[in-house]
Amino acid sequence: xxxxxxxxxxxxxxxxxxxxxxxxxxxxxxxxxxxxxxxxxxxxxxxxxxxxxxxxxxxxxxxxxxxxxxxxxxxxxxxxxxxxxxxxxxxxxxxxxxxxxxxxxxxxxxxxxxxxxxxxxxxxxxxxxxxxxxxxxxxxxxxxxxxxxxxxxxxxxxxx
Amino acid sequence: xxxxxxxxxxxxxxxxxxxxxxxxxxxxxxxxxxxxxxxxxxxxxxxxxxxxxxxxxxxxxxxxxxxxxxxxxxxxxxxxxxxxxxxxxxxxxxxxxxxxxxxxxxxxxxxxxxxxxxxxxxxxxxxxxxxxxxxxxxxxxxxxxxxxxxxxxxxxxxxx
Lengths: 160, 160
Hints:
globular, 13% strand, three-stranded antiparallel sheet, alpha+beta, disordered N terminus, homodimer
């Protein structure tokens, strides 16, 4: 028996059990080569994704988003890609293009197929109102990506 | 009659007449809002793409490629995308992802289709041995992109 139970929060959200959230947590744990976050619970680890309406309003949109925000964005879409891979066996790689001022586009590519495509705006404020919304949004993107892979396998497997 | 003939070089390469080179020249002219390059011939304008074997060897691969090199790379692939659009009616947008040290990937996206995909290396040295090779490489990418668009129209036109 491990002592993992000691570090989970008493009011842990059931959303934390979603496969997408589990994938997202793995992405963050993978950043932690030295084990500095070993005693930090999953929920605390991904808490920066929760940005309430009030917090959103207080975040300035001037200039370019900072490195922490960009990492949050990148790992969110990496987690979507890995969850798609887990369900289809096909790797989906994120590419992010940011213009100035937090606008841009993110795509997830599997072979020659764009399995997920999103325009980005207000990247400075990238986040979700609750853990439930984070899980739901992640799962929605994963579902859409899986459907694309299944719809166009010949494009995914195209060899050039 | 315009006086364009006055600024073309006497030994102008026939490659300069290729549709791809014409598209590339347009990309560069579009950067020149003030008309500062109006008297510069097309061949001189895109001369930085010509990097001989000796020049390649002398270019250091340390650190990240500089802004001029990145612009050269971006406008090359923008020109490929616009030449594809001219032949198919479908816009093909470049996305470039550079890792450290000049490695990365470039894709051209039309709808949900990756019409061109290239791994990048030695971006510091991005260039071609001659105008003929620049034209040939550009046309090759355009041809491949057009073929992809024609092979998978349902992916290009997919609405999500």
